[in-house]
Write a structure and sequence with these properties.
Layout: H1 7-19, H2 66-78, H3 80-101, E1 106-109, E2 112-118, E3 129-144, H4 149-215, H5 221-255, H6 285-288, H7 290-311, E4 316-327, E5 339-348, H8 356-422, H9 428-462, H10 470-477
Antiparallel strand pairs: 1-3, 2-3, 3-4, 4-5
Helix pairs in contact: 2-4, 3-4, 4-5, 4-7, 4-9, 4-10, 7-8, 8-9
Length: about 475
Amino acid sequence: MLDFFPAKPALIGLTALLLGACTLGPAYQRPEVMTPPVYREDAPWKQATPADALPKDAWWRLYGDPTLDDLQERARIANQDVRAALARLERARAAARISEADLLPRLDLDPSVQRGRTPEDLAPGRGAFTATALHVPFDLSYEIDLWGRVRRSVEAAGAEYQASAADLHNLLLIVHAEVARSYFGLRTLDAEIALLERTLELRAQNLRLVESLFKNGQVGRLDVARAETELASARSEEAGLRRLRAQFEHALAVLAGEPPAGLVLAAAPLDLEPPAIAPGLPSALLERRPDVAAAERRMAAANARIGVAQTAFFPAVRLTGSAGWGSSELSSLFSWDNRAWGLGPALSLPIFDAGRNRAGLEQAQALHEEAVALYRQSLLIAFREVEDALSDLRHLAEQYDAESTATRSAREAAELSGKRYRAGLVSYLEVVDAERTALASERAATRILGQRLQAGVSLIKALGGGWSDEALQRVAASGN
């Protein structure tokens, strides 16, 4: 088999072609973006001891809640959106490997057997005959990448694979953030329900007191009706909160990849404090946001496809060859004299394509411009989300302090009103009004605390959740 191919002429010609090869298309450069030096909402209120960096991946452990940790782990493993993203990542990995395969020759074994009869008129002097043809060829096909079409295709597929990896990290970040937000929403409702349960006990006591006073003729029926109304209203509000809590519980079940009926979370107090998080510099979002990294990688892929489109204007050279055996008899098929081979280049030169190649190049350039705009837009959105979260945390902290002061005053006013009513100094309407104000203020303070926790999650998500583009660098270094 060693002399099937004329080795020296083929190698010399192939070497000459490869030495003259080049790679068409613009060299990739990340475009410049306008990055503010600092966040506007960061400096005015930054706390003294913020966290320097978020934990890698498991950022929710900042809150020190085992139930939240368990829900996050279940979501990471069983969330169906995450599983779909994993499948997309494997599809992108396979596409990258398919592109890489074009860098090497393709060798196929194409055996065939045919038996046929040749009529007499087509075989003058020999007469009609029946013959068998056996072929066992190895077919070689290889595109000589003179202009870099294959290399640019591999570059584009590799960038798309890295973009899919960033998409997976971004989806995980979204899922984990949604689990945390839903969990804190549920715990906020737990705290409100606990407030209403205490209010129900207080209003039941008030009703018993008013009924006793009514029986003794000290108050009228109007006070009894008001006390019954307040008790029934509190029960109605509690039922409404329990309905909302069930919806949060069902949402958490779906995020964890479980049927809604399969997840039951016991009530727990809202005793968490939002952790202090340093947002860092805006320029760090270039490496800390997986969605920004995905947009940047797709921009790189679009840039490589410009080179692919440019190669369509130049001739394509393919090296084809075949080597094997052929015979009419199986017994002599593999004899040395029945060997056969063929080797030669094939040239394809575009002459007239009715503007197809020009349109293809314009399409690739437009797609690149689109990718650049989407990349810059993803950065603007990232900056906005960080500013929004910082602003929310700042103003919610101020609001919580003010509401806590109002709650203490309202609670004191309600206690004084109760004492004045029992002393016969005021009507029950004043008691009702004071208790409503106290309950509303306590519930408002509870909701603001829940909003602060959710705003902290939003800031963590906006900062990338501790992710960095080191993961994509590892993907690139591993050769897909």
